[in-house]
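Continuing the series of single-chain predictions for the mutant panel. This is the parent chain; the variants come on the following pages.
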Amino acid sequence: MAINLYTYAGVSRGWAGTIDVTADIPMDLAGKEGPGEAVKDTARLLEPLRLAAREALAYVGRKLAGVRVEVECGIPIGAGLGSSAAASVAIIAATAQSQGVKLSVDDIIKVAFTPESYLHGKPSGVDHSTCATGGVLTFRKPDIVKALNISWVPRILVCDSGIHRSTGSLVRAVIRKSESEKTLFESHVADASRISLGAARALKHGDGEELGILLNRNQELLVNIGVSNPTLNHLIGVALKAGALGAKLTGAGGGGCIIAVCRDSKSETKIGKALRQSGGMVYKVGMDSDGVVVWSGGEHSNRLSGGSV
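Parent structure:
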């Protein structure tokens, strides 16, 4: 599901052959790399942003053109909310527009695989597909993405643990585990597929109780494959004790955020308070149905959301 936390990219024409990128990343969104200090150097975050612009220029046949890119990030980094995917999609759409080309959503998704692969190694494609498309998607592999029409939008709280990790390193660790425990891992994948199909049915039918049960089952699988951690487990326990219908980590794990489904506004308030008292940063989010949006002014900009799964 695409959520209404946004990254903005403004792109204007620059000197031929140059790609200048500046990024405004509030440090309270940068999180911590484990128990150490918060990330203070944003320079290492800029290369995939340059790559997104470079790939967009190449895709529209303007490889030697130059652009100036300004990014404002409103999505926590390394928290499992699709911050890198949101930035890539925003930059690709805005860069193409700066050259007079409006890319389709499918084109944007195709181009975004390169910067996402740079960051994550072997991305599934679900994050940047969700960011570009908006709404709720069913996803099996990059060329099987379908919009899911739902009659009910779940009431969701996102809680950031403040511990942010590299998705790429976590993906590599899961791949190693899948190779060393192949039979068990295949069983987990089959279970996860059944849970996802069940969650899609629950969303279509507006069944919050069933959705909560399925989130909890999914979290059990994520614990078994080793991508959760004590902090996430604790926050999930707090949410459930406070009345959440279900809760799980989102993204690659190892840190980042949990999502909790709330029964109503009263329980939402109670759960949010409990999570804040436990040290989490709570975001009340809704569904973004628009996906990537491009508009033109003095510079060509767009906005998009990060996806939570």
